[in-house]
Automatic annotation (TrEMBL), chains A, B:
Domain HTH luxR-type intervals: 144-209
UniProt modified residues of type 4-aspartylphosphate: 60
InterPro entries per UniProt: CheY-like_superfamily, NreC/VraR/RcsB-like_REC, Sig_transdc_resp-reg_C-effctor, Sig_transdc_resp-reg_receiver, Tscrpt_reg_LuxR_C, WalR-like
Protein's name according to its UniProt entry: Response regulator transcription factor
Organism: Streptomyces sioyaensis
Keyword Transcription: yes
Keyword Cytoplasm: no
DNA sequence: TGCGGCATCAACCAAAGGGTTGACCTCGGG
DNA sequence: CCCGAGGTCAACCCTTTGGTTGATGCCGCA
């Protein structure tokens, strides 16, 4: 049991005022934490992470506005010597988790985590080690066990649009592809998910959390 | 501008520790609010609402566990002389809103609401008047303007199966119908939802909470 | 260096889904 | 008592989607 002598400097990024206040309340009680600032947008998170001296950024994935949390995460972690990013979100879909980790997040927590677990994860992240919520870790294990389930980036992108109700033609325009390519992707998707139609592919993928509802 | 002389006694019900802490932090600063307790389950909310002297219950809709927030809301408001219930949730789907209001909720707020709006809504609810977030109010207006949005029982049944990935043939067998009838239902569904394909119908219906995901 | 996975596209055919018209039945309310 | 809405079905036609084959280029890894 070693108590870290150094204080951990934190930046909170979440578009919900209530959640920001809650994180403040929960984390401020820890003697070795110092909350530098809390911001409501991903853009401000990127800016402050660069300007201020911050050790760990607690980052939401869903912001009401344009920029995604995963995008902000990528920009922050791209800078060498920058802060660690700890993703804190409500959902635990495969797509979100993968995106966050690929973006360079050091950890992935769910918002229903108890305060002690949260504080522990922050210290773990500050030390440079990865912090994953148990549920998240399980999902990743499953993922690795059955690599067939894993859709490629492009495939996920296509399926996401299909799930939103777009036709092949609409998807092809949206992604600057020919319809042939879209169909090709879909055939691969069907094979991976073990289905034979677009609607059942969407059903299977949402059930497995591969795409966002 | 009348400042209420009486203090408003509050009960917070949310399964996220962070959100509970956030609501405490935000609402405790109001001089005329007193937070009686915060609980992590719908069941405890029902029990405490009956046992303690509470004016307003701030109720989440999604609890990790079994009981739904709307169910708890119904039980609390069923008791005469009981507290008002103010629903506070992340989502603004038609189904959720309708369920909450039918369950007897006095108001419906989104979690991204600014603190001042939140406090104002609590006072409004305490006074017995209804408090709706702007977005929510808009949704209800839309709903009333186009009553066509309501699917019939049979149509919902068909669309539910379609959403699960079944083909027209599969649906017809499942419901002991001819394919012609299934198609007929689908055409009506498209018209009501303002779409022109099964996948977009599923997307629109899930967005509006007309079917289970 | 060459294999395999990913992404891209074309052309084609078969099948499923989408859209229309028209019809019959039942039930509940004006 | 009749009308309208919901539910059921048939026959038809056209569009979209599904499935195949085959081909190209790129990239990473063995």
């Amino acid at each position: 049991m070693t108590v870290p002598a150094t204080t951990v400097r934190l930046l909170l990024a979440d578009d919900h005022p209530v959640v920001r206040a809650g994180l403040r309340a929960v984390l401020e009680t820890e003697a070795d934490f110092e909350i530098v600032a809390d911001v409501p947008t991903a853009e401000q998170a990127v800016r402050l992470a660069a300007e201020c001296d911050v050790d760990v950024v607690l980052m939401d994935l869903q912001f009401g506005g344009r920029m995604l949390g995963s995008q902000a995460t990528a920009e922050i972690t791209a800078r060498p010597g920058g802060p660690r990013v700890l993703v804190l979100t409500t959902y635990d879909t495969d797509a979100d988790i993968l995106a966050a980790i690929e973006a360079g997040a050091t950890g992935y927590l769910l918002k229903d985590a108890p305060p002690q677990e949260l504080a522990a994860a922050v210290r773990t992240a500050a030390a440079g080690r990865s912090a994953l919520a148990p549920t998240v870790a399980l999902r990743l294990m499953d993922r690795l066990r059955t690599p067939a389930t894993a859709l490629s980036r492009r495939e996920t992108e296509v399926l996401q649009l299909v799930a939103e109700g777009h036709s092949n033609a609409a998807v092809s325009k949206r992604l600057f592809l020919s319809q042939a390519t879209v169909k090709s992707h879909l055939v691969h998707i069907y094979a991976k998910l073990g289905v034979d139609s677009r609607t059942s592919a969407v059903a299977a993928a949402t059930a497995q959390g591969l795409i966002r509802r």
